[in-house]
Design goal:
By secondary structure, the chain is an alpha+beta fold. The strands form two sheets. It has a four-stranded antiparallel beta sheet with strand order 1-2-3-4. It has a three-stranded antiparallel beta sheet with strand order 5-6-7. Strand 6 and strand 7 form a beta hairpin. The radius of gyration is 24 Å and the shape is elongated. The relative contact order is 0.15.
Amino acid sequence: MSYYPSFEQIIAQPDTSKLLEVRRSLRSIIPNIFYFIVSTIIVYVLNYYFYDASLPVDIPILSSLSVRWLAVVPLLFLAEIFRRYHNDLYIFELHRLTHLEGRLSLSYKVPVITYVDIRAITVIQDIFGRIFDYGIVSIGTAAKDGDELIISGVRDPVSLAKLVDQFRNNSKALAAQNSGPNDSGVSISAD
């Protein structure tokens, strides 16, 4: 069973501006959650056994630091989990795919690919991705040598790749339907 709705269900929606929104799966953040749990345990143990320990340094700022400040490390892992989950958003429209990249980062990009321009769709999964069913769907166009758009950390990447391929085939069919046999791209008006 697929995690995503079928292509027919997506196309049947009345609002064609945003047919489907996809973001990183929580399954792809499992390593970060593991690091958060391990760092929390280590900081707790260090604070329990070395509560009053401080650095033996003559620099006033560093000598006032204690082990309690290590509690910042798990908070940083927690902030990274939140940032990774909400940083990328992929919006599937009727004729194009938009990637809102870096919504919680210093740099923000919005690459847009039309489905007609897609030349290659690749699914990449490591061992944990195959176990937990998440991965990367990379989309290549003729405009760039490598992959133009990378949908990373999504759940059920094989079904999503098939869905992107169905969008591409639908877009090509609509483009072929709209261009007639005598359509050369030049408009001629008769007066």
